[in-house]
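Quick entry between incubations.
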Amino acid sequence: MTESPGVVDLLGVLAYAELSAYARMTEDAATLAPSLADRAALSELAVTEYAHFRLLRDRLAELGADPAEAMSPFVGALDAWHAQTKPADWLQALVKTYVGDGIALDFYREAARHLDPSIAKLVDEVLVDEGRSQFAVERVRAGIEASPAAAGRLALWARRLVGEALSQGQQVASARPDLALLLVSGEGATDISRLFATLTEAHNKRMATLGL
Amino acid sequence: MTESPGVVDLLGVLAYAELSAYARMTEDAATLAPSLADRAALSELAVTEYAHFRLLRDRLAELGADPAEAMSPFVGALDAWHAQTKPADWLQALVKTYVGDGIALDFYREAARHLDPSIAKLVDEVLVDEGRSQFAVERVRAGIEASPAAAGRLALWARRLVGEALSQGQQVASARPDLALLLVSGEGATDISRLFATLTEAHNKRMATLGL
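Done. Structure below.
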């Protein structure tokens, strides 16, 4: 099997992203949800992230990689991202789920474009949006309707999520050149411009969907 | 369908026990596990608890009960139990998973004995021990072998878990007489003696299995 050199890195960062997102969403659900029904709804999304982690870990093992070793270079950056973007309330938690994960997912999807089709298919499978948008979007829009002053505060929060994601992403890219190369392979600078245009467009679309 | 009056209470307390155990085990895994592999192993158990929560919530809905309403009388006691038994390290977390959940499960199983067989079957299904013992028992025994002084400390910890469980259990029983009646229906005082004998025996067996 000829794998791109960054493939273990990509599956490793994605696996730890899912494992840590599962833990953080579980905590946000337990500590911030305004009702037991909301707590269950966010927990449901968290458990889906865990199921994705399981798929990625098993695939790493199939490739002959040690899953823990493949994840470990990314623990610092992802933990730092979560520590710096700890939601203060329920609406911030939902915006983080929708906007924050959205940006990360766009990155992983771009990286997967250049991979062996079976890996690209797995990455697409774990990145599919199972109703995450519907749940978070409805609750956030209702929250803004109930308290219009929340919109400005949440827009700032979303900007902070993006800033922190880019900053951690840059550090990961400079530490893991094989992974960074997956994002630009083939077309160099042109591809980087296209990448940023794609990410910005997707982010603006999500903000508009939230009413922010 | 003729249901015992305590059945919604029983499914409600069990549902919230699973939902809160899932959140606490997820947190313990993320903060206390000594390796990513151990973190994944405890997370796997946590996600299983969530799957049980889902079954119980759906069954409550089928019975025409509002799941959140059925759970809410038990949130205080179960949250208090978790707050008073927050593990300080990885071995305490594993002992809590094995011993603490074990006691709770014995209680629920006893209560289910007197129920409609289809409910009793569901309760048995969600209480089945899917390898929980194997994982926790192996790690705790290895921990004691590596550091024999840990045994005394963990035995004290297990005693505290039982004490807190009994204290919260008594409060729940006096606040929810229909639920308490499930435990003694038919035979009154004789049944209570038998219940305590059963619980004590099961607990001692678990302690011996752990080497405590």
